[in-house]
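Illustration 12: Two-component system sensor histidine kinase DesK.
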Amino acid sequence: MTDRYTESPVRQEPGVRVLGIEAPAPRFALVVVWTVIAAFLTMQVVDILNEGITAVTVACSATVLPAILGLQLVHTLPRFRRLRARYGRWTLLGQALLTVVPVLLLGGPWGGMGGFTGASMLILLPRRVALPAFGALIVAIGVGTAHTEQGTVVNVLYMMMSTLVTGIIVYSLTLLSDLTLAVHEAQEDITRVAVIKERLRFARDLHDLLGFTLSAITLKSELAHTMVNRSPERARTELESIVELSRQALRDVREVARSYRSMSLLTELSSARSVLSAAGIDAHLRVDCGRLSGSADTVLATVLREGVTNVIRHSKASRCTIDAVAQEGVISLRLANDGVPPRLRELGRCRPEQLARDNGGLSNLALRLSEVGGTFSAEVREDGWFHLEASAAADAHETPAPDADASDDESLVG
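Figure caption equivalent — predicted structure in token form:
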């Protein structure tokens, strides 16, 4: 809604459409409101007719009642919120005149219409104005009734109480209808947010999972191309590795489409050594964490994959060290490499907002670690090396036997 509407002091109600379709519950709420309004109007008509049918009674009933009903529609239905925003004061003034003036002509029974005007005041006006205006209306109905033939003390009090009760009931039901509409709009917002979050998850997983694989495929393809004539067997080996990486990328895409993919830190450590070696980078890996399971394994494996991808794609590294260490139930992963581009050497320690601005992959990693209660940091130190550190509590930490542990370390240390 534009500013010309929001500047008006008249309160604006929510719409009735949820995801482009009118919701059954808001429709039912409006039906309840208008059933009650119709019942009160019918009661007022009966009271007026009980006083006797005259030309003035017929004229007012035929002209003023439809006008009051139409104005009440404008003041209540959400579809007229723009009209209310522009002309709400004038339509409210018209309803007030159509309520008070006939009291002087028809007497006390017409005063019952004041309840609808009071409800409109509470609906449209700011509270600091609505309450005094409603009180003034009740007094005006009482004074008008007192100057008629039915102006006994009992009738005056009855019409004032009728105006008060009718106004509160109609206003309360209208407010309940508005709240129902607001709840449905909130449900629509929740649905939209859920869709957006799923899209972000999908994009994040594609970036984190496929970035490494595609970089490795590119690197090994270039290596195979250079080895075709000089070392056909080496080229064949690299091509076989490319085929396996391509199949892995296809599996990753399918897993991402279904749900969050489980990954193994030890498997990624082995892949990292292979890819770094193929890139001609002197890689040194130290593993002292055993085999993990659960969210810590997947998140740290994702961190390692993204970190190695950045080493290959965004640096001219000649050396890289990777440490995966378990200590007091916390798994720490550290990756460091030289060859940092000059434009990044002045960053120092990256804050979260820097990660989001300078490197979407690192910001994804920080988000993943925060979701499991872990920590993440990335910085370029004075020696020109880039350092990435991540830690997370081990969901389930299995300590392997000494021989197995030594075997794993020996196979992973380059």
